[in-house]
């Protein structure tokens, strides 16, 4: 049988026909499919990783397409860097969501220089680094030599030294452009009639002045105070916090209530108290005014009990007052 098989060799294959051709094609297709599948799985892992951090993946991929091809370990290395800076993991998702470019940054080239700047140039205690980052995440994407250090030098020349030195509450000023932001705001405050020295004093007392928009905040509030309230600029110097209050929701409504009833208050009295306390104070002022008018008109109050029903008429949806008060005065 073996001899017979040997005397009848198998038919030669046709020319140019490769017995492994179909196998090769099959293997290539399988390899390509496997690679595609692996890429899909890796991408899915990154998406799940970002979603676990509560990052808007669509936004992140749109703003920073490099996230799509970046290795997952690269993303995790950024998170480890933030941990080493003292930033709690619960804040990482918010930081990545605000600035997706952080996801593919180089920790050693981009993040650690910021940490070194905060610790050594600004002299922020390590325990406060997290506060700096949470209050102003933009610090993490700011260039130290071109942005942060020039702003620090300018602020120090302005007077942010000693007890006014930049701290975790004011590091937000470091991300502002000296030429395009800080100087124009100082010039605007001076244009209200303040000397340079007074302007600096106001800024040191209330550094937030340098974070407000000139056209969106400072100018309309200054115009209302000087033109509608007929205020004295000296009062703004004493209370620069005026610019921190909402013009439409607090300054205008309270000023108009006082104006309608002929009363006056200092800016701190008018703005620093809650709605309830302001409303109560307005009631007290009306009662006192009514008492004084009655005393002047009658010359005296009868010695027997006298109930005076006061129709206050100053209730508003924002400051709902009791419309009727019983006021008993014993002679």
What would your notes on this structure say?
- This protein has about 325 residues and is mainly α.
- It contains 15 helices and two strands.
- It has a domain at about 260-330.
- It has helices spanning about 1-5, 20-50, 55-65, 70-85, 90-100, 105-120, 130-135, 145-160, 180-190, 195-205, 215-230, 235-240, 245-260, 265-270, 275-300, and strands at about 305-310, 325-330.
- The chain has a two-stranded antiparallel ribbon.
- The longest helix is centred in the N-terminal third of the chain and has 32 residues, at about 20-50.
- Mean pLDDT is about 85; it is low at about 1-15, about 20-25, about 30-35, about 300-315 and about 320-330.
Key structural traits:
2 strands; 15 helices; single chain; mainly alpha; two-stranded antiparallel ribbon; 4% strand; 331 residues
């Amino acid at each position: 049988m073996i001899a017979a098989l040997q005397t009848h060799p198998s038919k030669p294959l046709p020319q140019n026909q490769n017995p492994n051709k179909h196998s090769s094609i099959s293997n290539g297709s399988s390899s390509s499919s496997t690679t595609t599948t692996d890429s899909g799985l890796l991408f899915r892992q990154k998406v799940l990783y970002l979603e676990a951090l509560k990052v808007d993946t669509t936004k992140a991929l749109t703003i920073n397409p490099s996230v799509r091809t970046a290795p997952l370990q690269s993303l995790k290395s950024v998170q480890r860097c933030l941990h080493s800076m003292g930033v709690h993991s619960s804040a990482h998702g918010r930081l990545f969501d605000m600035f997706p470019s952080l996801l593919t940054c180089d920790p050693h080239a981009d993040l650690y220089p910021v940490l070194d700047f905060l610790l050594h140039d600004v002299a922020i205690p390590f325990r406060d680094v997290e506060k700096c980052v949470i209050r102003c995440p933009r610090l993490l994407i700011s260039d130290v030599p071109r942005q942060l250090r020039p702003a620090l030098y300018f602020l120090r020349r302005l007077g942010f030294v000693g007890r006014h030195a930049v701290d975790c509450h004011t590091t937000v000023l470091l991300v502002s452009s000296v030429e395009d932001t800080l100087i124009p705001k100082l010039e605007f405050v001076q244009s209200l009639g303040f000397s340079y020295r007074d302007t600096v004093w106001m800024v040191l007392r209330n550094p937030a002045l340098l974070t407000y928009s000139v056209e969106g905040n400072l100018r309309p509030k200054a115009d209302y105070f000087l033109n509608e309230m007929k205020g004295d600029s000296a009062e703004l110097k004493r209370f620069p916090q005026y610019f921190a209050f909402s013009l439409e929701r607090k300054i205008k409504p309270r000023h108009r209530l006082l104006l309608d009833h002929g009363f006056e208050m200092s800016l701190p009295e008018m703005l620093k108290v809650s709605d309830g306390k302001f409303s109560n104070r307005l009631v007290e002022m009306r009662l006192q005014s009514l008492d004084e008018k009655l005393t002047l008109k009658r010359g005296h109050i009868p010695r027997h009990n006298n109930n005076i029903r006061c129709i206050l008429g100053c209730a508003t949806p924002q400051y709902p007052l009791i419309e009727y008060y019983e006021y008993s005065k014993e002679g």
